[in-house]
Amino acid sequence: MSTGALVDRFGRVATDLRVSLTDRCNLRCSYCMPAEGLDWLPTEGVLTDDEVVRLITIGVEHLGVREVRFTGGEPLLRRGLVDIVRRTTQLRPRPETSITTNALGLTRTAHALAEAGLDRVNVSLDTVRRDDFLTITRRDRLHDVIAGLEAAAEAGLGPVKVNAVLLRGVNDQQAPELLRWCMDRGYELRFIEQMPLDAQHGWSRAEMITAEEIFASLRSVFTLEPVGEPRGSAPAELFAVDGGPHTVGVIASVTRPFCGDCDRVRLTADGQVRNCLFAREESDLRAALRGDADDHEIADRWRAAMLTKRPGHGIDDVSFLQPSRPMSAIGG
Ligand code: SAM
Ligand code: SF4
């Protein structure tokens, strides 16, 4: 009989499900994908809308999933997104439901997504300078991202969060400028340390911008005061800016890992469970789905997949090996 949460060998309980809806994308961020894109998953390999919703339903009804975040690749490219969101928010207990997106096309879908029950959006934006946006994403689409952000806020998908990655020699001097821009518009900014998850394997520990550097850069312009409780399972360390009410977050995945408090589990667009961004193994739920397994069997497989979750990502270990799937195919 399958009841019980997604618990790993170290007692961590996964309640936050990240669902990748596609590995495709309309940007080519240099820290994520090569200019020419990747070999996309074949269409028949990608879960159908019904299959995605069935797995989310099993997660919520059998396995204690309380939060669902849709990601990718670019989730707005998934045709069935609004319907998948609607069916997700109709589950009981109703999971908190959000998307992480580059916001291209959000002007067209923000209201439909809000109407379908979506709670929030996280928009990825690394610079507000057009030329640097083009350098980083290899597309001249900054204006579309800004319009998408405005549409999200207007549709009530707030608080709108902005995620930024800083790259040495490109936008690393722009942390205060980006923070000011976000505060002026009521967006909550979080910086994310660059991780070794790019398809080209171009990440370098020596080159990445560390949380310490981000703090130093922000503190050259603003005062930062730690906010509230220790961060718990929330990866962002939050700071009040100039005494508040605005805040800024820093997600120091590499230099201050939070693996001990991790409450996440990931589902790829082709139906593989990954118990960690950096996992080197996956568990195939698509085969179970398409092989007529019942919900209890699938829940059992999913639970078993958690038992190989490692205590930490080990990026700093000499034996660290980057996972073969890049971020865009795992779901960030
Ligand atoms: N396309 C959507 C977007 O960009 O928001 C969703 C998928 S994207 C893979 C999710 C997040 O991962 C984005 O905020 C992006 O900046 C971040 N990301 C991608 N590659 C990364 C890397 N190597 N290190 C840190 N963050 C990365
Ligand atoms: Fe696309 Fe997001 Fe990767 Fe940028 S970070 S290439 S928007 S999947």
Question: Could you explain how this protein is built, in words?
Answer:
The protein has 332 residues and is α/β, with parallel strands linked by helices. The chain has a domain at 6-160 and 259-330: Aldolase class I (TIM Barrel, Alpha-Beta Barrel). The protein contains 10 helices and 14 strands. The protein has helices at 49-63, 81-89, 106-115, 130-137, 142-154, 175-185, 211-219, 285-290, 295-305, 327-330; strands at 6-7, 13-14, 16-20, 67-71, 96-101, 120-124, 161-164, 188-192, 224-226, 237-241, 247-251, 264-267, 272-274, 283-284. The strands form 2 sheets. Strands 9-10-11-8-7-6-5-4-3-12-13-14 form a 12-stranded mixed sheet. The protein has a two-stranded antiparallel ribbon with strand order 1-2. Strand 7 (161-164), helix 6 (175-185) and strand 8 form a beta-alpha-beta unit. Helix 1 (49-63) runs parallel beside helix 2 (81-89), helix 1 packs across helix 9 and helix 2 packs parallel to helix 3. The longest helix is centred in the N-terminal third of the chain and has 15 residues, at 49-63. The two termini are 32 Å apart. 43% of the residues are buried. S-adenosylmethionine is lined by residues 25, 31-32, 71-72, 74, 100-102, 124, 163, 165, 192, 194-195, 197-198, 327-328, 332.
Q: Outline, from the CA principal axes? A: globular
Q: Can you identify the CATH class of the domain at 6-160 and 259-330?
A: Alpha Beta
Beta-strand percent range: 15-25%
Which percent bin holds the helix content?
25-40%
